[in-house]
Design a protein that fits this description.
58 residues
Length: 58
């Protein structure tokens, strides 16, 4: 929800020039630096994008 709201605000403030870019970290950073379990980033990013679209269309 926060990401969608910030993206919406930046889109308004930039008069339509804002583009949200998403990217994943490399596996070693996720596992070693953050101590998290590696999973397929594409599926997680897809879920984030669909969630953001649902929030912005509501």
């Amino acid at each position: 929800m926060n990401l969608a709201n910030m993206a919406y605000d930046l889109q308004l403030l930039s008069k339509g020039r804002f583009r949200l870019g998403l990217g994943s970290q490399v596996r070693s950073h996720i596992e070693n630096r953050y101590g998290s379990t590696w999973s397929r980033p594409t599926a997680r990013m897809r879920e984030s994008v669909l969630g953001g679209k649902a929030i912005l269309s509501a």
